[in-house]
Design brief:
Rossmann fold; alpha/beta; two-stranded antiparallel sheet; 2 domains; 9 strands
Length: about 325
């Protein structure tokens, strides 16, 4: 049994992967224990996964299937790190079963994402604190960071990176961990989300190199950057209406972006060039709103990045390209 912790597919991919799991399909809660009898860890995981399948849960907050979701939840509930192989044949005690059942009940009946239940999620190979103050970390930008930024930024000292819409801070912090001498500014309009980001900055010991800024997009920003990264709100009105119940636990401010999902992206495209160095690059995740972008700006040469482990809807534009097409973004 192998546990896979994801963090790669775009948000709208995840929403559309589960079109039948709408918030109105919640089952009624049951007071009966979900896992009963003498069970090994493996048996508990498989029984939990069967319950998840039966309930029609939606995934996408760190895993993409029932067995990995059940593994993650139970291993964390038992205090066993999911990145290390456990003893799947160990028998669960009555106290352990009781704790697992309480967590499973919330996942099944309240549709709380596992990351919020266990208080953490993985991104770019690092564990981050996660709760309802910000979206659960997940983005193909994790691959972009781990793949040496696709060679888009020079490997010279003093690189400056801006993470727009940082939420809980995972993208900016992962950048700082990937490039030890870089300085990262991370902005978000949500003061609540930034309290979580501050906890993650402290967790990873990068307070001297990751600066948190409160404000809307570039509002609190000064100076020039080699790379601007953003995973902004980009879910269109149709997908917001069809979201599975799991996504209702996340702050809507981090999801919704108008009828076509491009309200925030338009502002980023309009203003980004003023904050990039001459050879700087803008990289933004837009998920399935990529199709709307191609309609809105058909002449703009967006470089749509490819990822070996899946995920799409991430584009790159150089500063020169942003300046050349500035008239299109006004």
């Amino acid at each position: 049994m192998t546990l896979i912790i994801l963090g790669e597919p775009s948000l709208t991919d995840l929403l559309r992967m589960t079109p039948d799991h709408h918030r109105s399909n919640l089952p009624g809660a049951s007071p009966e224990p979900l896992l009963v009898g003498e069970l090994t860890l493996e048996q508990g995981i498989r029984q939990a996964a069967a319950l998840f399948d039966q309930a029609g849960l939606a995934y996408g907050h760190g895993t993409d299937n029932a067995i990995d979701e059940a593994s993650w939840l139970l291993l964390e509930a038992l205090g066993l790190p999911p990145e290390q192989p456990p003893d799947y044949q160990r028998e669960l005690t009555a106290a352990e079963l009781d704790h697992c059942n309480r967590q499973l009940a919330r996942r099944l009946h309240e549709r709380v994402p596992t990351a919020y239940l266990v208080g953490s999620a993985w991104f770019a190979g690092h564990r981050f604190l996660s709760d309802a103050r910000a979206l659960v970390p997940r983005s193909p930008l994790a691959q972009f960071i781990n793949d040496d930024f696709h060679g888009l930024i020079a490997g010279t000292p003093g690189i400056r990176i801006l993470d727009l819409c940082t939420g809980g801070g995972c993208i900016g912090i992962a950048c700082a961990l990937a490039i030890p001498d870089t300085v990262v500014d991370a902005s978000d309009i949500s003061a609540t989300a930034l309290t979580l980001a501050a906890e993650n900055v402290a967790l990873h010991g990068v307070a001297e190199r990751v600066n948190l800024r409160e404000g809307s997009l570039f509002e609190p920003i000064a100076g020039l950057y080699d790379l601007i990264l953003s995973n902004p709100p980009y879910v269109d009105a149709r997908d917001i209406e069809a979201m599975p119940a799991e996504f209702d636990h996340e702050p809507l401010l981090g999801l919704a972006a108008g009828d076509d999902g491009l309200d925030i992206v338009r502002e980023i495209l309009r203003d980004a060039a003023r904050y990039l160095r001459a050879d700087g690059v803008l990289v933004v995740e837009v998920g399935n709103s990529a199709s709307a972008m191609k309609v809105a700006w058909p002449s703009v040469p967006f470089d749509w990045l490819h990822f070996a482990e899946g995920g799409e809807g991430v584009f790159a534009l150089t500063r020169d390209e942003l300046v050349q097409h500035a008239g299109s973004f006004r």
